[in-house]
Write a structure and sequence with these properties.
elongated; alpha+beta; Muramoyl-pentapeptide Carboxypeptidase, domain 2; Arc Repressor Mutant, subunit A; 4-stranded antiparallel sheet; 8 helices; 3-stranded antiparallel sheet; WH-like_DNA-bd_sf; 46% helix; Transcriptional regulator
Length: 227
């Protein structure tokens, strides 16, 4: 007999109950034993176990075969934190930004942190072209591509002969609005660190935050050639 869940909310709640029973048990449990604890039909337990096993939260346990007949299927909870739980990365970012803001020379330290981050970015993003340092245009194009991958919605601009990169989206907008002296220097350092790592003939001189309600502006300049 099939016993389907009556609603999505009830299904999720029942699945949590099955997982709770398994987590509280020191030993693996059969479907019948779980159903007995919860006072539900075994098919209900079987239905939710399939999902829990598929999600990696529950695993089958092989029993030593003793005597004739097929041993019952046994299950136990995988001992790990619930990877399906709520994340609060914004809270973590707020904690770190607040800590930075309370430090002496907060902006300088934020730039340094951004630089360190920028130097490591190519390990996770697209690799630097072998000719990235060949010209300023190549370097700026690569910077724009990197910022695009990070969600800044960048655009190349030129004003009074100066090369610029406009940022139309901030991945940390709410934080940047309240912690401009920390978050924006991190972004500046990020761009500077990336350019330095690439050996680019152009650098990011400064970053103007919210020059327009929907625009931050990175100002670029050519590096002086070594004598």
């Amino acid at each position: 007999m099939n016993v389907p869940p009556t609603s999505v909310g009830e299904s999720a709640g029942r699945r949590r109950e099955v997982l709770r029973v398994l987590r509280s048990s020191p030993d693996a449990m059969s479907i019948a034993a779980i159903a007995d604890v919860l006072g539900v039909h075994p098919n209900t337990v079987r239905f939710h176990l399939e999902t829990l096993v598929g999600d990696g939260q529950v695993e089958h346990v092989e029993l030593d075969r003793k005597g004739p007949g097929r041993p019952p299927l046994m299950f136990r909870a995988v001992r790990q934190m619930d990877r399906g739980g709520t994340r609060h990365y914004r809270l973590l970012a707020e904690v770190l930004a607040t800590a930075f803001a309370g430090e002496p020379d907060a902006s300088a330290k934020a730039v340094a942190a951004g630089r360190a981050w920028g130097r490591r970015l190519d390990a996770g993003l697209q690799r630097v072209p072998t000719n990235v340092a060949a010209s300023a245009d190549d370097a700026i194009d690569h910077l724009v591509n990197m910022l695009d991958e990070l969600g800044f919605a960048p655009e190349r601009r030129t004003a009074d002969g100066e090369q610029q990169v406009g940022l139309r989206h901030c991945p940390f907008l709410e934080l940047a609005e309240n912690r401009t002296t920390v978050v924006c220097p991190v972004h500046l350092g990020l761009m500077q660190g990336a350019m330095e790592t690439w050996g680019a003939p152009v650098s990011v001189d400064r970053l103007e935050a919210f020059v327009e309600p929907d625009l931050c502006l990175a100002h670029l300049k050519l590096r002086k050639a070594a004598k």
